[in-house]
Amino acid sequence: MAAPGTSLTIAAMNTLTSSSASTLPRVAVLATGGTIAGAAPDATNTSGYQAGVVGVGQLLAAVPSLATVANVQAEQVASVDSKDMTLALWATLARRVNDLLASDTVDGIVITHGTDTLEETAYLLHLSVKSDKPVVLTAAMRPSSALSADGPLNLLNAVTVAGNAQAKGQGVLVAFNNRIHSARDVVKTSTYAVDAFQSPEMGALGWVQDGRVEFQRRVVRPHTTATPFSIDSIGAGWPAVDIIASYAGASRIAVDALVAAGVRGLVVAGTGNGSIHASVQTALADAAAKGVAIVRSSRVGSGHVMRNGAASDDALGFVTAGALNPYKARVLLMLALAAGHTTPVALQQVFDTY
Ligand code: SIN
């Protein structure tokens, strides 16, 4: 496998004339690992495989028709199982995306990623990439060695979307199982199905099939170039933000330990409309009084979390996450704190906007 940092240029292949190749969009594929780059000892094994062991050159070679949709260049940025995604790798990836998109030799980017934290990486980039060129994440639920592996078609579709003019200005997209989702809306909703990504409440933005791309709606909230967030503002280190959950019998132990450890923000995966067990809520109120940013989200999986009025959120200094799940709310809270938004009023404005 290519070592991280390796670049490859996949020459337009002999199915194309040089003139048709020169009119194709130029798409950079950045590989980070995941099941799409996974391999198992046999083709019927889709659970006991190793993620991130197949290099980007091999992934591209498995899809010869890529040469009919784009001039592809590729880089192995990392080779990780995305459960092990790090903040340092996020920064490396975001900077590489920004550098490539600033060049006039790249029209769009595809990032191959593990499915497990794809929605977090996608939203981070949606908020921090500084270009309106398409950035499309894709992945696979079955390793590359599997019968009916889904990675090759997902990769072809992602490159097709990244090279399509309609994808410009829509922020970061996820192309998966023929659907195109906004990074803000999309979540993983199945542990095994190839249709593992959905956009609850909102629905997909559109679809891609057999080279055709169709958007049914456009992204409304500001993103990429229209946000104040930048990966460069993270210079001194990411603000420490953790996630805790509310559930029957929950106690304040976790909140108190995290506050003692110095967290700057806590996202709570609450019940229902972000409601919180009384013991946890008291601890969170104490934390807010010490200046820790508290964001209420929901563990439900769809819907949004509304502010609950003067007697509660206003009095306690809590912020609500709207339709963002806890993991995405954490991404936004980290970027907002890094950008200097620290009061509940300023943070609520951020959550209501992005
Ligand atoms: C990962 O997230 O890297 C492994 C799981 C997957 O890609 O489906």
TrEMBL record:
Domain of life from the UniProt record: Bacteria
Entries under InterPro entries matching the protein: AsnASE_II, Asp/glu_Ase-like_sf, Asparaginase/glutaminase-like, Asparaginase/glutaminase_AS1, Asparaginase/glutaminase_AS2, Asparaginase_C, L-asparaginase_C, L-asparaginase_N
Catalytic site positions: 35, 115
Domain Asparaginase/glutaminase C-terminal residue range list: 241-351
Residue ranges occupied by any L-asparaginase N-terminal domain in the UniProt entry: 26-219
CDD domains: L-asparaginase_II
Database matches in Pfam families: Asparaginase, Asparaginase_C
Keyword terms, alphabetized: Hydrolase
UniProt similarity note: Belongs to the asparaginase 1 family.
Protein name: Asparaginase
Source organism: Paraburkholderia bengalensis
